[in-house]
Write a structure and sequence with these properties.
Layout: H1 2-43, H2 48-79, H3 86-106, H4 119-122, H5 124-151, H6 160-181, E1 186-187, E2 199-204, E3 207-212, H7 213-235, H8 237-247, H9 249-254, H10 259-285, E4 287-288, H11 294-307, H12 312-332, H13 340-354
Antiparallel strand pairs: 1-4, 2-3
Helix pairs in contact: 2-7, 2-10, 2-11, 2-12, 3-5, 3-6, 3-10, 3-11, 5-10, 7-8, 7-10, 8-10, 11-12, 11-13, 12-13
């Protein structure tokens, strides 16, 4: 009799959980619809110009989240592990780009028309290009050594062990940046062509809405980098090697693919994308410090789960959706904008409860990338 009770109790628990989940989902949906009704119908506090500003902001930050999320997805596709030190690669790229711009603004190139001209303003395109090259190179190099030192020796260990190593690597990189660069909050000095706050003016509903130069630059470059990555993964020999290693490492090795080098290349690519996201973050937001990569890194992980971990198009979609929800959500729900981080993590919890495979589905076994 006791054994039957033990057998049936887990079944009862499963049945209870099965009914609780839809009830919870209905309650959340009702709450969101009620808040939307109050904001859009009853109060009608905001005009189209406000929603346009929020939409622009969401697309910009969504592009950055997508770039970082792709790094999570690439590593997960190859090794089935979450590289929680990925946000710190973004932070390192932010610092690298900052020092390039600091050097560019201190190199004088006097001219007849302007004796105080500096390199950053005399050659803005070149200085921006150098900043991105250096930021991506430093982050990619850090990612390469991170894999060799912190992850490769643990490749055959249980999956929890590399995860703990990744968390330790994250803390190590944060504290290394703290010791090297101090806890001081720094500010990017942009070339004049990408001055923060400047942009194209659009008249909407009688109000001027600014389309910032830095935002447009960040969004377009994010899209170009993501399209470039898709081309590399789908059409190049390196991409074929990555897909083969993701499917089956042993078989890929028998086919002549250098598995270790392919994994190293994956970390280099993901690090380069994180570095570019870091430079974009500095150009658009300006203020940063040694802890700047932690929250965007966690949110990008949320974006990767939202779109479908291991799925590159899913990471892109998840990043864009998360950026839009984070930007528009607090206003649409009429709550404090400081709760935008809470919204992001609530989305993570809801996705894990109702659709843990993500919107486009988690890519497993046969095709991880």
């Amino acid at each position: 009799m006791k054994s039957n009770e033990k057998t049936t109790s887990p079944l009862k628990l499963r049945n209870v959980v099965k009914y609780i989940r839809p009830i919870f989902g209905i309650l959340v949906a009702v709450y969101i619809i009620w808040r939307f009704y109050l904001v859009f119908i009853v109060q009608n506090l905001y005009g189209p110009e406000t929603w346009t500003r929020l939409l622009i902001s969401g697309l910009i930050i969504g592009g950055v989240y997508s770039l970082i999320a792709i790094g999570y997805t690439l590593v997960y596709g190859i090794l089935l592990m979450i590289n929680f030190a990925h946000g710190e690669l973004m932070m390192i790229g932010t610092f690298a780009g900052y020092f390039v711009f600091e050097a560019a603004k201190n190199i004088s190139i006097p001219s007849a028309g302007n004796p105080e001209m500096v390199f950053a303003n005399a050659y803005p395109a070149l200085s921006i290009l150098i900043a991105f090259i250096v930021g991506m190179f430093v982050s990619a190099t850090t990612g390469y050594f991170l894999e060799k030192i912190a992850y490769r020796p643990l490749r055959k260990a249980p999956r929890l062990i590399p995860l703990i190593s990744a968390i330790g690597a994250s803390i190590f990189l944060q504290n290394a940046a703290l010791l090297l660069f101090s806890p001081q909050t720094r500010n990017y000095t942009n070339p004049e062509v990408l001055s923060r706050g400047d942009g194209w003016k659009i008249l909407i509903n009688g109000s001027m809405v600014t389309l910032p130069y830095t935002g447009v630059f960040t969004f377009i470059l994010s899209i170009l980098l993501m399209v470039g990555l898709l081309f590399v993964v789908k059409k190049t020999r390196l991409g074929k090697s990555m897909r083969a290693v993701a499917m089956d490492k042993d078989t890929a090795a028998l086919m002549g693919i250098d598995v270790n080098q392919t994994i190293s290349n994956t970390f280099i690519i993901s690090g380069a994308l994180a570095g570019s996201a870091g430079v974009m973050w500095g150009l658009h937001n300006g203020m940063f410090h040694y802890f700047v990569g932690f929250i965007p890194g966690i949110k990008a992980f949320t974006a990767a789960v939202l779109g479908g971990i291991g799925n590159i198009p899913g990471a892109m979609l998840g990043g864009m959706l998360l950026g839009l929800v984070e930007s528009i959500g607090p206003t649409a729900l009429d709550i404090s904008y400081q709760l935008k981080d809470v919204i992001a993590f609530v989305i993570l919890i809801v996705i894990l409860i109702f659709r843990p495979s993500g919107i486009l589905g988690e890519v497993l076994a046969e095709e991880k990338i």
